[in-house]
Specification:
The chain has 404 residues and is α/β, with parallel strands linked by helices. It is built from 16 helices and 9 strands. The strands form 3 sheets. A 5-stranded mixed β-sheet has the order 5-6-7-8-9, with helices on both faces. Strands 1-2 form a two-stranded antiparallel ribbon. α4 packs antiparallel against α5 and α8 packs antiparallel against α11.
Length: 404
């Protein structure tokens, strides 16, 4: 299953904040501890699965630095249990056992950056503590202004080749910030493309930071983790006068409006019809919320343009990194199915042009066999809920469901 990167980032944030809370209470914090805390944001090319190499190459060494201990030849679970006992927080154990880290920091700087932390420790320690305790945009902007005047980070064996300090520090401050409002500003191609799109690609750091945080509240983007997910598709999330936004992050839907439309005299017939619509909308929203909960390991998007109001889109839903478009219907009756099929093909064309569609319908229950057969003939996927369990008849969708 492809993991929702924002979920991994937020999990790492929770872990680092718990470790930082323990660390910052100490009297004699060392450069090695700051380095270790930052290193928890790192991964390698192997970052998923039981044998992911980043665990031994970055995660365990980072924990050794933070706790000034050697965990060599100790099973990972024993290390994690020991750490949770040291800081007296049982919730840390699950965070440590889960995959963490999210940035493949430049290998040529992974060792030399430790010397840089050591050389600039007096300036860095207050910034780390300030990032941990930041309460608002003023606090964060002051930290960014301080980053901007720090010296560059030298490359191993090439001291004249300097890396911008924000490449190392913004992932660390992303992890320390309680509200995750520090955007990642590094050499990643998607970040560079975003800064260019915002017209600040060649601007100084504070201007770049200000341009990025202005995107919060746009297209459902609430924090830096959300922003990092949509960076590559930002043009779809930001509207212009000539081209409205097409996508937004899927948010929880309202399902509790029980008292609308009381019956009133000559308006009774219309009110009854409208009440039926409200019931359908409530079911629709309940299904959408269930889908979001069931697929919490994925980033789900929704349409926000009147010409393309799709219910849900899962980017990179399969091993081929393809997108899946889902239409939610509150009824299994044939007219609803026909409408859903037409909507799906139209929405896909609006989003993807003439490419081969990956589309599916989500229903409140399994429909009749004739509808199942029809959807298979149309190559449209089918999903439904049995209680709270997501189900499907399609082998190509089973990795998303409880049947996986």
């Amino acid at each position: 299953m492809a993991e929702d990167w924002a979920l991994r980032q937020r999990r790492t944030n929770k872990l680092v904040r718990k470790l930082a809370s323990y660390m910052f209470k100490q009297d004699n914090i060392t450069p090695a501890q700051l380095y270790g805390l930052s290193k928890l944001s790192w991964i390698t090319n192997s970052y998923e699965g039981d044998n992911a190499s980043y665990i031994n190459s970055t995660k365990i060494p980072a924990l050794e630095k933070i706790f000034d201990s050697s965990f060599k030849n100790i099973p990972h679970d024993e290390v994690y249990i020991k750490i949770s006992e040291i800081i007296g927080d049982n919730t840390v154990l699950n965070l440590l056992q889960s995959h963490t880290g999210f940035t493949n920091f430049y290998k040529a700087y992974r060792n030399s950056v430790f010397n840089w932390v050591n050389d600039n420790f007096t300036e860095l320690l207050p910034l780390y503590k300030a990032a941990y305790s930041a309460k608002n945009s003023t606090d964060r902007k002051a930290i960014v202004e301080s980053i901007a005047v720090l010296p560059g980070i030298p490359k191993a064996n090439h001291p004249g080749s300097l890396m911008s300090p924000e490449y190392f520090l913004t992932p660390a401050f992303f992890l320390l910030d309680v509200d995750i409002k520090f955007p990642l500003i590094n050499g990643n191609k998607s970040v560079k493309a975003l800064l260019k799109k915002l017209g600040v690609g060649n601007s100084e750091l504070v201007t770049q930071y200000s341009a990025m945080v202005k995107l919060y509240g746009t297209g459902g983007i609430q924090d830096a983790a959300d922003l990092d997910q949509v960076t590559g598709e930002l043009s779809d999330f930001i509207g212009t006068a000539s081209e409205p936004a097409k996508k937004a992050l899927l948010k929880k839907k309202e399902t509790n409006n029980e008292n609308e439309l009381p019956l009133k005299d000559e308006d009774d017939v219309e009110a009854i019809w409208e009440a039926g619509k409200i019931k359908q909308r409530r079911i629709h929203n309940q299904l959408t919320n269930k889908l979001k909960n069931s697929l919490s390991n994925y980033t789900l998007l929704e349409g926000c343009n009147q010409s393309c109001m799709f219910d849900a889109l899962i980017p990179k839903y399969n091993e081929d990194k393809e997108d899946l478009l889902i239409e939610v219907k509150s009824s299994t009756e044939t007219p609803h199915i026909r409408m859903a099929v037409g909507q799906l093909f139209n929405y896909w064309y609006e989003l993807k042009g003439g490419t081969s569609p990956n589309i599916a319908i989500l229903l409140p229950e399994r429909p009749s066999q004739s509808i199942v057969t029809f959807l298979e003939w149309m190559n449209v996927g089918l999903m439904w809920f049995e209680n709270d369990q997501l189900c499907t008849v399609n082998d190509w969708l089973k990795h998303l469901t409880s049947e996986r």
